[in-house]
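Help needed: design a sequence for this.
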C-alpha cells in the first residue's frame, strides 16, 4: 500500500484490519480477528508509513485466526 493512501484494508487469516492515517500524519490500525477478537495499535502508537503499520496488524490477525476444525490453533507461547 502506498504511504500516501488514506486508508487500506488487510484481510488475511480470516480476519480484517484497517490501516488509517492519524492526525499526527502517521499510521495506525484497528482489526477484528477470525476468532472474534478486536484489536488496535496500542494507545499513542503510530507508524511512519502504512507499510510499517501493516505487519503489526497482520501479526494480530495471524494470532487470532480461527482454529482449524478438529485441531488447536498452535502454540501461543504463554
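Sure. Designed sequence:
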Amino acid at each position: 500500500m502506498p504511504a500516501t493512501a488514506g486508508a487500506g484494508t488487510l484481510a488475511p487469516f480470516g480476519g480484517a484490519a484497517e490501516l488509517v492515517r492519524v492526525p499526527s500524519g502517521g499510521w495506525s490500525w484497528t482489526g477484528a480477528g477470525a476468532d472474534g477478537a478486536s484489536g488496535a495499535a496500542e494507545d499513542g502508537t503510530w507508524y511512519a508509513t502504512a507499510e510499517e503499520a501493516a505487519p503489526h496488524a497482520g501479526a494480530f490477525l495471524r494470532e487470532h485466526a480461527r482454529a482449524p476444525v478438529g485441531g488447536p490453533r498452535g502454540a501461543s507461547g504463554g
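Confidence is low (pLDDT under 50) at residues 1-5.
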